[in-house]
Amino acid sequence: MAFDVNDAPREMTLDNRTTLLDALREHLGLIGAKKGCDHGQCGSCTVLLDGRRVKSCLVLAVTLDGRSVITVEGLAGPDELSPLQAAFIAQDAFQCGYCTPGQLCSARGMLDEVDRGWPSAVTDDLGAPPDLTDAEIRERMAGNLCRCAAYPHIVAAVRETAATR
């Protein structure tokens, strides 16, 4: 199968039971996405697949042929942080850092969803562009757990990034 990872073409032959998470970590050496629960419940393995957030532990690698994956390693250039990564640092939006790669990928995906006008379960007016309130950010980031409880800082970092877009 052939697919792009962080804008670089990759070709791989894998067992058909291999997950995207294992392909990234074990076969490509991209260890940013973390194996947390292996059940899609914690979000530590979140990456962007064709621009949309996915839990990579739930995606079979054989479904990737011709698709594009962005991991936390691909969010910024080699010598600079993305605005989102800089905001996470400025807002102290991580404690132990284990969930941070998944949080960053999820936040990037949710900001793109907001830019496209997609509503969430708490969006008040479905006919208007979503207003990125703290409640809206919390709802959209609900699939990513932080065992250190840095949630207020994560919300602040996402809000800061959204204000500059």
TrEMBL record:
Residues 1-75 form the 2Fe-2S ferredoxin-type domain. It comes from the Bacteria. Keywords: Iron, Metal-binding, Oxidoreductase. PROSITE patterns: 2FE2S_FER_1, 2FE2S_FER_2. Gene3D superfamilies: 3.10.20.30, [2Fe-2S]-binding domain (1.10.150.120). The keyword Metal-binding applies. CDD domains: fer2. This is 2Fe-2S iron-sulfur cluster binding domain-containing protein. It comes from Micromonospora parastrephiae.
